[in-house]
Design goal:
It contains eleven helices and nine strands. The chain is α+β, with helices and mostly antiparallel strands. It folds into two domains: about 1-90; about 105-335, 2-Layer Sandwich (BirA Bifunctional Protein, domain 2), CATH 3.30.930.
């Protein structure tokens, strides 16, 4: 039995050495280690080996199996390495690699990140709220009467349950005042939705950035200084800013903010960029009623609020002529911002 096992080992190692492809490797493995292989058949003969020789024959059997298995693995690795070398032999490693396209942030993200960074440096904290809102948060709490055009279904997206897609992120200001006590200094960037016809300057879904500051003795001078600093940090120190009296239900007095736009080859012109004002005491009264305390008693506090469109900021900053370019995902347009 010992001599037979040695012969099997010799024959197996010789056969493995002569293998030239992977099919031959598998045939050899089956021939020696398969269910009907020579070594398997020899193993079955262990029951006929005298008791005093079983230990020696068992050790020899394990030795032969280990030698054959190791030789098969080494041969397999050798064949794989040879196949890989042949596959790469025709590749010129000195050729330059194909260029990988570079990615980048969307222009709206670039403008928003910069705007938020400026306002954060001024002490404003980020706040957020749901895009599906109640009429109270979106209109009633903001002193918007029931007959106001913004509350009409032709201007606002309503759901069957009476809720709506927020028409501005001012609702976040109300939600913040519900939860926090003055002083409050927050900015609320996010999406807003209106039933506008889509054209070069209007979208039905757009991006806003609104701010609120509430404390004791907040004045119009604080509002003016905040926004002038913000726009000059965003567009440059020589940016001209003006405030025009306007009307908003939730601020009194109210203003629209204009920037003087200098386009190459064209006469400078003023363009409306934001709305703002001193928070109307009626807003504080509504919040006070909702909270049930005197934290926002209009006799003891004041505040200012402002809002602007991120889309319009991007159009001015990058000279984009058509708002629709920002939502069409045309790689040719977006690539210039990467």
């Amino acid at each position: 039995m010992l001599e037979e096992l040695e012969v099997i080992k010799t024959d197996a190692l010789t056969a493995i050495g002569a293998i030239s492809d992977e099919s031959g490797l598998e045939e050899t493995r089956i021939g020696f280690l398969g269910k009907k292989g020579r070594l398997t058949a020899a193993s079955a003969g262990m029951r006929d080996v005298p008791k005093e020789l079983k230990k020696d024959v068992g050790q020899k059997l394990n030795e032969v199996r280990t030698a054959i298995t190791s030789a098969l693995e080494e041969k397999g690795a050798s064949l794989t390495a040879a196949r890989d070398a042949a596959a790469f032999s025709s590749i010129d490693a000195t050729l330059p690699a194909r260029p990988l396209p570079s990615g980048g942030l969307h222009p709206l993200s670039l403008v928003l990140d910069e705007a938020v960074s400026i306002l954060r440096r001024m002490g404003f904290a980020l706040a957020e709220g749901p895009e599906i809102e109640t009429e109270w948060h979106c209109f009633d709490a903001l002193n918007t009467p029931e007959d106001h055009p913004a509350r009409n279904e032709s201007d606002t997206f309503y759901f069957e349950n009476g809720k709506l897609l927020r028409t501005h992120t001012s609702s976040v200001q109300i939600r913040t005042m519900e939860k926090e006590v003055p002083p409050v200094r927050i900015i609320a960037p996010g999406s807003a939705f209106r039933r506008d016809e889509i054209d070069a300057t209007h979208l039905s879904a757009f991006n806003q950035l609104e701010g609120l500051y509430v404390d004791e003795k907040v004045t119009l001078a604080d509002l003016k200084g905040t926004l002038e600093y913000f726009f000059r940090e965003l567009f440059g120190s020589k940016t001209e800013v003006r405030f025009r009296p306007h009307f908003f239900p939730f601020t009194e007095p109210s203003f629209e903010v204009d920037l003087k736009l200098h386009a190459t080859g064209k006469a400078a012109k003023w363009i409306e960029i934001a709305g703002c004002g001193i928070v109307d005491p009626a807003v504080f009264t509504e919040v006070t009623t909702k909270r049930g305390d005197a934290a926002y008693d209009p006799s003891g506090i004041s505040g200012f609020a402002f809002g602007m469109g991120i889309d319009r900021l991007a159009m001015i900053m990058y000279g984009i002529p058509d708002l629709r370019l920002l939502i069409e995902n045309d790689v040719r347009f977006l690539r210039q911002f990467a």
